[in-house]
Amino acid sequence: MPKKIYQSAGDKFDGKIIAYHDKDFLDSDFGRPVRLLLEYLKPEVMMQDRRINDTVCIFGSARTLSPEQAAKELRQAKAALKKAKPGEKKLCQAAVDKCLRRQEDSKYYAMAREFARLVAGYEDKDGGKRFTVVTGGGPGIMEAGNQGARDAGAQSVGVNITLPFEQEPNPYISDGLCFQMHYFCIRKIHFIKRCKALAAFPVGFGTMDEVFESLTLIQTGIIPRIPVVLFGRKFWEDLVDWQCFLDRGLISPEDMSLFKYCDTAAEGWQIVKDFYKLP
User: Fold this and answer.
1) Is residue 166 over pLDDT 80?
2) Within a domain: residue 170?
3) Is residue 35 part of a domain?
4) Helix axes 184-192, 205-219, angle to 10 degrees
C-alpha cells in the first residue's frame, strides 16, 4: 500500500482534536519544540520535588561487567574450551582471552560502586546527604554508581536513554528518579545542571562525548569550575594524548588542570573533598 502523501499540514492533522491531545501532531516534526521542553521539564520538576540540588555524575561504559558476572563468564568460557573439539579450540581460546580482559576491567565496576558509596554516604554538618549520585541509568558503570548509592542508603538518579538496541534501566535507581529520555541534548542538560563533580571511568563513544563536552563547558566558562576525575590513569593516558593538544597549541597550559587522574575510589573522593574543602 503506497505511503500517504500529505499536501500540507492541514491534510495531515485533524483540526477538531485539541492540539495537546493530538498524538500525530505532537509526534511530528512540528511538535519537536514541545517535546524538547517536556523532556526537560518533567525530570526538572520531579528532581526539585525531591530536593536534589548537588549531584555527582558518574560516567562510564555500559559494557563493564561486575566482578561476579565477569568471573561467571570466564568460568563458562574455560568450560567451553575444555570441551572444545580440535577445530573449535582457537575460537574458544579467543573467548577465554576476551573474558580475561573483561575480568581485569571489572575492577572499575567495583571502583565506581565504592566511589558512589562514599559520595552518597557523605553527610553535611546538619546530618543531611550532601550529594546525590546521577548516572546514565543503564548497565555497567552506570549500574555500579546507582548500586553504590543504594549501599549507602541514599537515593540516586538514572537518566536513561532510549536506543535502537534497547537499554533497560538498571534495578538500583531510586523509585521515582528513573527518567526515560529520547533526546541526548536534554539528557546532557540534566547531567550538568546540578553537577558538582564528574567522575569518568573507562569509556566508549558516549562517555567520551560527555567528558569532552563537560570539559568544553568548563573551559569556556559556560558552567562553573567543578572537579573532573578520570579513573584509571593508564587507560586515559593511553586513550588521549593530551600533550599533543598542548604541543600543537590547541589547548592552553591551564586547561591541563581541568581534570585529575586517580586509581582508587578513595583517591577520587579525596579529590572532590579537597576541591570543596570538605572535612
Assistant:
1) no
2) yes
3) no
4) 60
CATH for 217: 3.40.50.450
DSSP notation for the chain: -PPPPPSSHHHHS-TTS-GGG-HHHHTSGGGHHHHHHHHHHHHHHHHHHTT---EEEEE--TTPPPHHHHHHHHHHHHHHHHH--GGGHHHHHHHHHHHHHHHHHHHHHHHHHHHHHHHHH-B-TTSSB--EEEE-SSSTHHHHHHHHHHHTT--EEEEEE--SS--PPPTTSPTT-EEEES-HHHHHHHHHTTEEEEEE-S--HHHHHHHHHHHHHHHTTSS----EEEE-HHHHHHH--HHHHHHTTSS-GGGGGG-EEESSHHHHHHHHHHHHT--
Q: pTM of this prediction?
A: 0.91
Alpha-carbon torsion angle 221, 223, 227, 228, nearest 10: -90
> What is the number of other CB atoms lying within 10 angstroms of the CB of residue 203?
22
Query: What is the rounded average pLDDT of the residues 86-114?
Result: 95
Residue 163's pLDDT is what?
83
Contact 92/107 with Cβ under 8 angstroms? no
Domain extent for 60: 53-65+112-276
Dist CA 16 CA 34 (whole Å): 20
* Structural domain contains residue 185: yes
Query: Structural domain tally of the chain?
Result: 1
**From CA 244, how far away is CA 256, in angstroms rounded?**
12
Mean pLDDT of the region 93-103: 95
Res. 2 pLDDT band, cuts 50 70 90: very low
Q: Which residues contact 124 (CB under 8 A, 6 or more apart)?
A: 130
Asked if residue 46 is part of any domain, the answer here is no
